């Protein structure tokens, strides 16, 4: 139970910690100053959302997200959100590939070569169908988390651990709603694909509580670090490079590896969700479908990493607020005691 619970936790966290998050660009887009309460609220909403989604996937023994969406929002809206989720998975995976190109440009590697190389590595994940995705996440995500937290703690240590919190200056709390609604999209897609692989309800508690705690803690530490370099972020495609610019080149190398791992796991999760959805429409080996999808995405990466995040992420966050509300309220409207009362009436 514990092993599987941790495996699902790392799958969830790996789905979220992509190039946008690990680079700091996504966090800065939503949070920044006056966001301590917002991050706490995000952690709570995210934990509840993961728990509800995993419970539904387990109950339905799902293999893709449409049945789960239908349960949450009904038949008509499920069709609309099907397109939204598919579009999200496609566009964010494209953003990950763009992030790969931007990361490796630091070493004078051409953008297209970094993007194509990362895409090829994602395809390799699916040579053993989709089982390789969960296996690689269980290995890479702990390394990714430890690396990111270590870099941020070293930076905070150099500043004397400057953390700020004032209740009277916490006006950015609504950002928690849009940030959570943005991040539940990949969770719905990826978790619904592993419904049949979950064996015990205890796995759901471990994965949902663990992922909420991890994402909340890392987001707080990262946001506080970004606040210390706020004046310079606008000049960098990847904010994390600002944190590391005064450090030895080995730290920049470590950060580049960190970003690439984040890109790799999130792009893999995105392709995983897309393949699961397309299974009934496209026949063929998983790696061939993955190669086809990445070939279609490649030309779109030229729009630029930070530009795509700035435009698409807030848009998806707003569009999915209704889905978030449905997820949060689902346990209340489908509680056994409430259902018994309705039958009695």
TrEMBL record:
Cited InterPro entries: YkvI-like
Q: Which UniProt keywords apply?
A: Membrane, Transmembrane, Transmembrane helix
Positions of transmembrane segments: 38-58, 83-103, 109-127, 139-161, 173-192, 204-222, 250-275, 287-305, 311-333
| Lineage top rank: taxon | Bacteria
Q: What is this protein called?
A: GerAB/ArcD/ProY family transporter
This protein's species is Alkalicoccobacillus porphyridii
